[in-house]
Specification:
This protein is mainly α. 41% of the residues lie in helices and 0% in strands. The chain has two helices and no strands. The longest helix is centred in the N-terminal third of the chain and has 18 residues.
């Protein structure tokens, strides 16, 4: 890619980012450390989010 085209593409990208912000993160959620959420068991999410009527 020639230098002028590369510079134009970078400038266009900066303008889009100024208007819309960072739409997509650089990493996916499974690549990030989400605060050290260590699940003791595979079912712990379901137990934490169990509806109240299941406690009876």
């Amino acid at each position: 890619m020639p230098q002028d085209e590369r510079r134009d593409a970078q400038a266009a990208r900066r303008r889009v980012d100024e208007i819309f912000g960072d739409v997509l993160p650089e990493t996916t959620s499974d690549e990030r450390d989400e605060g050290g959420q260590d699940r003791a068991t595979p079912d712990s999410w379901y137990l934490e989010n169990r509806p109240p009527h299941h406690d009876r």
